[in-house]
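Action item from last week, closing it out:
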Amino acid sequence: MERFLAVFREIWESMEFLEQEHWGDANTVVVRNRVCFRARASGKQVDTLIMQLITVRDGRMPECRPFYWDPQAVAEACGPGTDDA
C-alpha cells in the first residue's frame, strides 16, 4: 500500500472525493466514489467514477481492486497532453 501511495503522489497532484457510497458485509465491501483528479504532468483534471472491490480479513484489507468508469480519460490525463484537434 505504501508503494502504491508513493506512485499515486507522483502522478496525481490532487484527488477530491465528491460522492461516496459503500455496501458490504464483514468480508467484502464495494465502494462507489465520484472523484476529481488533477494530474501533475499534464495539469488535466478528470471527474470520474471508481468502483472498488475490497476484501477484508481479520480487520485488514489484503486486497483492493479498483475499477475506473473511464480508464481512457484517466490514462490521457496522466500523459503529457496531446491535442489532435
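Closing note: The mean pLDDT is 89.
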